[in-house]
Amino acid sequence: MSKTANPGRGISRDMIAFGVLAVVIALVFLSQGAVYSTRMFVEAGCYALIALGLNIQWGYAGLFNVGVMGFIAAGAATSMIATYPPNPDFWNSDGPLMMLGVVVRLILGFLLIFFANRSDRIGAGPKLRALLIAIAIAMTWIMVTAAVNPMAAEIEGKATWMGGFGLPVFVGWMLAAIVAGLIAWFVGKVCLGLRTDYLAIATLGFAQIIKTFLKNADWLTKGTLTVSPLPWPVPKPEDGEFLLARSLYLVIVALLIVIFYLALQRAYHAPWGRMMRAIRDNEEAAEAMGKDVNWRRLEIFVLGCMLIGFGGAVLIQFTSVFDPAGFIDLNHTFLVWVMVIMGGSGNNRGAIFGALLVYVIWTMSEPAAAWLFDHVRIWGEAWFGWQAPADLDSRALQMRVFVIGLTITLVLRIAPRGVLPETIAHKPAGK
Amino acid sequence: MEPFVFFLNKAVISGLIVGSIYALGAIGVTLIFGILRFAHFAHGDIMTLGAFVTLILAGLASYAGISTPIPLVLLVLPLAMAATAAIAIGIDRTFYKPLRERGSAPIIIVIASLGVTLMLQGLIRLFAGVGTRNMFFDQPKDIYRIPFPGSNRGLTVTEPQLVLVIVTILAVTALHLFLTRSRLGKAMRAVSDNADLARISGINLNHVVMATWIIGGSLACLAGSLVSMDVVLKPDLSFNLLLPIFAATIVGGIGQPYGAIAGGFLVGFSETLAIFNWSILLKPLNEWLPEFMQLPQDMALVPTEYKLMVPFVILILVLIYRPTGIFKGRVL
To answer: What ipTM was predicted for this assembly?
Structure first.
C-alpha cells in the first residue's frame, strides 16, 4: 500500500459528500422558504460547533462524553446570565450581599476540602485523612446549603430572580466556554485516570444534575418560567425583518465554524495532534515515549467541552428563549453523537458534514413522522377498525428516538468509520 | 414514639425497598461489567421492558379469566423473567456479539448499548405511550400494619414492598448458591477474574455469556416489575435508575455480586437518609436547646429534587478515593 490508499479518493469523497449536502440545502431553501431555512441552518451551524467539540474528544482522543447536554446547558445558562439585562429589583435587595456570602462560604469549603485532602503530608494516616475529608465535605455542604436557602428565598421574594449582567453577547459566549471548561476540568480530573467507561457514567450523571439544578434554581434561571428574549450579537428581527437578521446571525455562525475548523485542522496536523492520536491509538507506547497521558486527556477533554459550551451558548442565544426543561439527552447528547459517528469520527470535515446533514434530516423527520402516523391512523381505522390512542402524535415523536438508536447501532456495525473517515497518513498497523 | 415510627417508615423501610431494587439491578450490571467488560447502559431500560412484559402477561392472564388470591402480576413474574432473559440474550446476539467478535474496543460496545437504550425507550413509548400505568389494574394494594409499641399507627408495609424484600432475599441466596456451588457459576467467577486463563482451562465462554444475560435480564425484570408495583409503571425510569445502579456497582467493586448487593443498599439508604427531614426526629431536642439554637422546620440534608445528587456524590467520592470499590473489585 502506498501512503494513502488512493490520494485522489479522499478529495472526491469529500466533494461527493458536500455536493450532496449542497443539493439538500438547496432543496430545503426551495421547499421551505428562505426565512425558515435560515433559522434551520443557524441551528445546524450551532450543532456543527458542538459536534466539532465532541469530535476532538472522541475522534482525537477516544474520550466518551455522554454529558454533552450538560455542557450545552451550562454554557447556555452562563451566556444567558451574562448577557441578559440586569434586574434592578435584585440589585436593590439584600440578594447580592447574600450571594457574596454564599460564594465566600463555597471558597472556604473548597479550601477546607483541599487541606483535608492534603492532610497526609503533615502526617495524617489514611484513616484519619478519610475522616478529615468526610468532615470537611459535610461541613462545606451544611455551611453552603444553610446560606443558599435564605438567599434563594430573599431573591425569589423580592426580585423573582437575579437577572443578568447585560454584558456583550460575545463576552457571554466566552464565559460560557470558560464555565463549561471548568466543569469539564473537575469531571475529567476525577475520571480520566480510569477507563473511559467511568467517564461515560460520570458525564451522564453530571448532565442530569446540571439540568436538575438549572430547573430548580429559580433564583438563578427563573426555573420553569423560562427567560426570554435573549440578546443577539446582530440586530434582532424587528417588524418581520427575519430574513436579514437571521442571515447576519448565520454569517456569524459560519465564520465561527470556519475559524474553529481551521484552528482544529492546524492542531490536528501539528505535533500536538499527532501526539493525541498516538495516545488514542496506543496508550502504553505513548506513555513509554514520555507523554503524560492523563494530563493530555484532561487537556483535550476541557478543550472539547469548552467548544461544546460555546456552541450551546450560540444556539440558545439564537433561539432567544432559555428553558432549562428544553435540554434533553436525545436532542443535545445523542443527536450530536449520531452527527459525529456518522460524519466520521476524527475528521473535522466529517463532523461538520454530519452535523448539517443530520440536523436537516432530524428537523424534517418531525413532520414526516407526524404525516406517517396520520396515515397509519387513517388506514388503521378504515381497514381494521383500529381505534388509535389519543396521544398518537406524541408517540409519533418517539419513533425518532428509536431511529436515532437504530442509526447509532447500524453505523457501528456497517460503517464504523463514518461517511468521511479520518484519513490516516501512515500505514495502518498490521498491513 | 410517633416520630421514631415515622423515621422507620420513611427512612429505614423505604431505604430497604430502594436498596433492594438497586441491588437487583446492580448485580446484573456488575456481572456484565465483570464478564463482558463494558458498562451496560441499557440496563435501566431492560428493567422498564421487564415491567412491561410482566404487565402484558398479567393482562393476558386476566383476559383468559384466570383469577387467583395472589395478584396476577406476581403470578406471572417467573414467566416474565424468563421472557426478559430471552430478550436480553437476543439483544446481545444482535447488537453486542458481532462487535465483540470483531474485536471492537469496549467503548464501542458501550456506545452500542446506548443505541439499544434509545431503541428500547423509543419502542416502549411508541407502543405504550408516555403515561403511567397501574400494575394492579386498579385493584387496591394490601397494606400491612405492624404494631409498634408506643405508636398507634405502626409500621406500614405494602404488599409489593413485602414481596420485594422477600424476593430479593430469595434471589440473592439463589445467586450465592449458584455462584459458589454450581459448575457454571464457578466458571462465571473464573471468567470474571481472568478471561484468558478461564478460556485456556476449557471454560465455554458462550455458556458463561449466556448465563450472564439470563441472570442480568431476569433480575432486571424482577427489579423493574417490583419497582413499578411499588409505585406506578413509568416509561421514563431509565437514566434516573441507571445512575444509582452504576454507583452501586462501582461502590461494590466491579465484578463483585456481593459488593453490588452491599452497594445497592448503601446507595439506597444514603438516598432515603439524605432526603429524610431530620427535624421530625430531632424536634424533641428543642425543649432542651436554648432559644437561638432551635432546630429549623426543614432539616433534610438534600432537597428531594436533588435526590440524584446522592448516588452521584457517592460515585465521585469512590472514584477519587477508592476506585476498586469497598469490596476490592477491579478497576477496568
So the answer is: 0.85
- Please check whether residue B129 touches A, CB under 8 A: yes
Q: Which one of A412, A414, A417 would you mutate to disrupt binding with B, by most B Cβ within 10 Å of its Cβ?
A: A412
Predicted confidence band of residue A3 (pLDDT cuts 50, 70, 90): very low
User: What's residue A127's pLDDT?
Assistant: 83
Residue that has been written with the C-alpha cell 437504550 in this structure:
B117
* Residue to test with chain B: of A142, A199, A201, most B Cβ within 10 A: A201
Taking the CA of residue A242 and the nearest CA in chain B, the distance in Å comes to 35
What chain A residue is nearest to B124 in terms of C-alpha separation? A398
Q: Hey, are the CB atoms on B111 and A337 less than 8 Å from each other?
A: yes
CA distance B299 to A214: 22
| Mean pLDDT to the nearest integer, B247-274 | 90
Residues of A with Cβ-Cβ distance to B315 under 8 angstroms: 201-202, 205
* Model pLDDT for residues B33-79, shown as the tens digit of each residue: 888 888 899 999 999 999 999 989 988 888 887 777 777 788 888 99
Q: Chains A and B: how many Cβ contacts under 8 Å?
A: 145
How far apart CA B332 and CA B38 sit, in angstroms, is: 9
Can you give the pLDDT at residue A68?
Answer: 94
C-alpha cell at B206: 458462550
- Return the closest-CA partner of residue B309 out of B264, B254, B243: B243
Cβ <8 Å between B308 and A405: no
pLDDT band (50, 70, 90) for residue A220: confident
How far apart are the CA of B136 and the nearest CA of chain A, in angstroms? 21
In which residue are the cell numbers 431530620 written? B278
More confident residue, B3 or A412: A412
Per residue in A6-26, pLDDT (tens digit) is: 444 556 788 888 898 999 889
Looking at residue B330, its pLDDT comes to 62
Tell me which residue in A197, A337, A399 faces B126 most closely, judged by beta carbons.
Answer: A399
Strand partners of residue B156: B145
Q: Using an 8 Å Cβ cutoff, are B331 and A194 in contact?
A: yes
Q: Which stretches of chain B are DSSP H helices?
A: 2-7, 14-36, 43-63, 72-75, 77-91, 97-101, 106-128, 159-181, 183-193, 195-200, 205-230, 238-252, 257-275, 278-282, 309-321
Say what the pLDDT of residue A237 is: 77
- Cα–Cα distance list, A409 to A17, A168, A348, A365, B49 (Å): 22, 42, 22, 19, 19
Q: Using 50, 70 and 90 to split pLDDT, how confident is the model at A315?
A: very high
Closest A-chain CA to B235? A398
Hey, which residues 362-381 in chain A have their CB within 8 Å of chain B?
Answer: none
* Beta partners for residue A163, in sequence order: A86
Measured on CA atoms in the order A369, A375, A381, A386, is the torsion positive or negative?
A: negative
- Grid coordinates standing for B234? 413509568
- Considering only CA atoms, which of A364, A376, A372, A365 is closest in space to residue A403? A365
Q: Which residues pair with B233 in a beta bridge?
A: B133
Buried/exposed B224-252: b ≥16 CB within 10 Å, e otherwise: bbbbbbbeebbbebbbebbbbbbbbbbbb
Contact A85, A166 (CB under 8 A): yes
* Distance of alpha carbon A53 from alpha carbon A49, whole angstroms: 6
Interchain contact A409–B (C-beta under 8 A): yes
Omega of the bond leading into A229 within 30 degrees of 0 (cis): yes
Q: How many CB atoms lie within 10 A of CB A381?
A: 12
Residue-level pLDDT at A426: 59
Kindly state whether B316 is in contact with chain A, defined as any CB-CB distance less than 8 angstroms. yes
Residue with cell 448485580: B27
Distance from C-alpha of A133 to C-alpha of A128, rounded to nearest angstrom: 9
- The radius of gyration computed from the CA coordinates of chain B, to the nearest angstrom, equals 21
